[in-house]
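# step 3/5: fold
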Amino acid sequence: MSLIEWVATLLGIACVALAARRNVWTFPTAIGSVTLLGAVVFEQRLYSDALLQAFFVVANLYGWATWQRERQRTGEVTVERLGAPARLGWAGAIVAAALLWGAAMHRLTDAAYPWWDAGITAASVVAQLLMARRKLENWWLWIAVDVASVPLYLAKQLYLFAGLYLVYLALAVLGLAEWRRAGRTAPALAVPA
């Protein structure tokens, strides 16, 4: 395993641990991690995953700004929940994006596991956007992404990344618990988007 994989792994663990605690430093840490991870997965022909890492750089800049504004406004990073219609809308978007992206990767590239990779990518995009918007439901998606990513990375013999996603899974479960506690102490907010 390369030095780049190790550094990406350590930064990734730090990033998720910081997110679970609602610490804005999760975002610069994430930017470092996803930049390095993107280079590794591109080399492994996981093109959807590589594009996802590029998206994460932009999404983490957005999340960083959003969380900073919220912290300045309220003194902390508050937790909100999606309403039922928004949950259905986001779920539909994941399915549609996974089908379209998977088909494109299957037909137009030599991608390894195009459908599997596309499903993980679509769910990850939505999870990242929901995290940036401080929605509790982001953790449920991250748990699903982590469960799906471990066997994919094992299939590509990226053992360190498979181990990383097991750690991410544990941290996502802790993040869900922490954000639930934080959400209970705040006024109930069910927001449509």
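# step 4/5: annotate
The first strand starts at residue 81 and ends at 82.
# step 5/5: archive (pending)
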